[in-house]
């Protein structure tokens, strides 16, 4: 009854083939077989033949099925719908179609006006000034020109300042990079997969405002998934907990990376956890990585996925280093390795992270108790 009352949206008209049986069989197979089968399919555009089935489950709000179908990749054409559904768990299908909740949208913009978010009247924190600096130096790799336009800079600035107002101890440098990825995913949906400055200029003011309010909702959801105490008196940055889980996982794996001095290892990987890889890879690869985190059907999938991908990545990096204790050699490789990584290597690492998730992560949970 609900579907008949709701107006049709974009994903009602996407056709695709049924792949549920294939996905089910993949879950039952070995992780090695999964990696070998899908290694050439991990890319930004994704498999468009999956769109029909994904939209079928989105229409039913069957989020478990959506996760299962999407856990090895999300087609670009429906990515925003899937992220919206899995991060926000909306109560109506129409909300997914609109990529917006009217109540939250109005509340956000009422708060922007009431709290004078565009001014410094109620933002006395030093972080408010830091945000302004961070916005001007937001350069997502491959799409750096997008945030040189005032339209997206203003969106980014308001979202970060709203977060600071609601959570006075919640802001940290690097959050701008995380939010820029969210904005790009939503803009990609509203422009129908066109990501050039001229396409953003063509967006209506109403669409831009909905992108902004939904970006803020995504940010709050991610903070929850990362288990950050954004309501605390002291700053509680998510990277600290992720780093601890990462080091524990490497110990369980008996990883070669542990031959590196621990401080050196932390220095090489700290930014991964602060920015969720958004400064390491081109935007399209970052989004594909996040696809895995968002759609992981297991508990704490987003947080644990970050740790497992980091373990797979450091494992691959150290395999190319002759002397793992030579900080200059490691620094030189790490500075360019991710940015210059070819698609096959990227896919292999991404699939290796699934193996780690299955083979080792239960052990780390056991050791933590």
From TrEMBL:
Transmembrane segments: none annotated. InterPro entries: Rab-GAP-TBC_dom (IPR000195), Rab-GAP_TBC_sf (IPR035969). GO terms for molecular function: GTPase activator activity. Residues 73-297 form the Rab-GAP TBC domain. Gene3D superfamilies: putative rabgap domain of human tbc1 domain family member 14 like domains, Ypt/Rab-GAP domain of gyp1p, domain 3. It comes from the Eukaryota. This is Rab GTPase activating protein putative. The lineage of its organism: Eukaryota, Amoebozoa, Evosea, Archamoebae, Mastigamoebida.
